[in-house]
Amino acid sequence: MDEPHIEGRVKFPSLLLLGAPGSGKGTQGQILARIPGFVHISSGDLFRSLDPGSELGTLFREYSDRGRLVPDDLTIRVWQEHVRTLVASGAYDPSTDFLVLDGIPRNANQLARISDSVDIRHVFHLCCPNREVLIRRVAGRARQANRADDLDPKVILERIAVYETETKPLLGRIPPDRIHDIDADRLPYQVLRQILDSLP
Fold this sequence. Notes:
The protein is of the alpha/beta class. It has 8 helices and 5 strands, in the order E-H-E-H-H-H-E-H-E-H-H-E-H. Helix content is 46%, strand content 16%. A 5-stranded parallel beta sheet has the order 2-3-1-4-5. Helix 6 crosses helix 7 (153-167). The longest helix is centred in the middle third of the chain and has 18 residues, at 72-89.
C-alpha cells in the first residue's frame, strides 16, 4: 500500500463534527480522542496554540476578535502541517485510525481542497437551534478557558451567523447517507451515545 501522505494518493478515513459554535463539537472531539482509534484535530485549538507574538498568531487574533473565519490558505496550511507531524510522530496511523475533524472544513472551498486527502465517511451534524443555549455555552467555555474572543455576545452571534452562511451549507455537498443529525441540546454523554450508535 502507498505510504499515506497529506497530498494524497491514500485518503485519510475521517469523521466530521459539524455544528454551530456552542453545539459541543470540541467536547465530543475530546471525548472521542480518548478512545483508541480516534484522533481529534480542532482547527480552533491549533490556531489558539500558535505563539500570539508570531505572524500567524497575530493574524489569527485579528480574525477571531471579530468573529470571522481565518483565511482558507492559512487554515489549510496549519492543518496540513499538523497532520504531517502527527503521522511522522506515530500519534496518528492512517491505516488504523479515524481523524475526527472539528472546525475544518468550514466552507465549500476548504472541503474541495482537502477532498484529495480525506475520506469523510460520517458527518455528525450537532443540532442545537436555541441560540440562547449556544451563547450561554460559548460564554461559559470562554470564562473557563480564558478565551476573551468568545466573551462578547455580539462576536458570538457573528460567529453563529458565519456558520449558518458558510459552514452549514456543506451538508448539501455531502451524500445524505453519511449525515447523522445529532440532538446536541442534551448532556455530553447522551450526545456521545448518539454518535457512537451511528457508527457501524
